[in-house]
Design a protein that fits this description.
Elements (H helix, E strand, L loop, with lengths): L1 E7 L5 H17 L4 E6 L7 H10 L4 E6 L6 H17 L4 E4 L9 H11 L1
Parallel strand pairs: 1-2, 1-3, 3-4
Helix pairs in contact: 2-3
Length: about 120
């Protein structure tokens, strides 16, 4: 079974976690055949490894680590891949892969255009 782990940076603001939780709930409604969990790089829980563990415990044999990050940078290019590699070692029978950051998605231009015209 495929799972999606939405990961964000993390923040001391409770609002950030609430927004991620709401996003995951909306995604679950539209994609009921998938397992959804969330995790944070730092400052908040669950951590990325804990989120992957939750996906596996829920029956996932594939985990897409979906980067809720706008652009590449140290976290996207170095930190997160290192963390995910540790989880790959822990769960060798599970296919774990990482998405590009959302800012690299071809739909981002239309999204930004919509925001510009809506404000």
């Amino acid at each position: 079974m495929k799972s999606v782990l939405i990961i964000s940076h993390g923040s001391r603001s409770a609002k950030t976690k609430e927004e991620v939780e709401q996003l995951v709930e909306k995604l679950k409604v539209r994609n009921s055949e998938l397992i959804f969990r969330y995790g944070f790089l730092e400052l908040e829980s669950p951590s990325i490894p804990e989120g992957i563990d939750q996906c596996v415990a829920a029956g996932a044999n594939e985990v897409l680590v979906l980067l809720n990050f706008l652009n590449a940078g140290r976290h996207v290019d170095k930190d997160i891949p290192e963390i995910v590699e540790e989880s790959r070692q822990k769960h060798p029978k599970v296919c774990i892969h990482i998405s590009p950051p959302v800012g690299q998605h071809p739909g981002i231009v239309q999204l930004f255009t919509d925001i510009i015209h809506d404000n």
